[in-house]
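mind reviewing both lines:
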Amino acid sequence: QVQLVESGGGLVQAGGSLRLSCAASRDIPGIHQMAWNRQAPGKERELVASIDGSGNPNYADSVKGRFTISKDNAKRTLYLQMNSLKSEDTGVYLCSVYSWQRGTQYWGQGTQVTVSS
């Protein structure tokens, strides 16, 4: 069974930076999309950033210009560089990977990001 493990969250002041990582326990065949999602208190889960199999990124309007998604296939790791953090970026960040070959979306447990104003 594939496991996704996020790390890198923490408490940071507004304007600061964090780098999140999501490591897969084993290779996932036929990856269509890898993504970072955010679950804020009292809000629905939202897609923050995604990257497709060709490496093309997409971002939510709220994070464009501040967040950068990237991946290292050799390390089976997805990253999210977050700069100029705002209090509204606070939440649990979960990574997800969708495999078209398996018809399955895998989820990590999440890592907490708290931005103090």
Summary: The chain has a mean pLDDT of 95. The radius of gyration is 14 Å. The chain has no helices and eleven strands. Residues 75 and 94 are 18 Å apart (CA to CA).
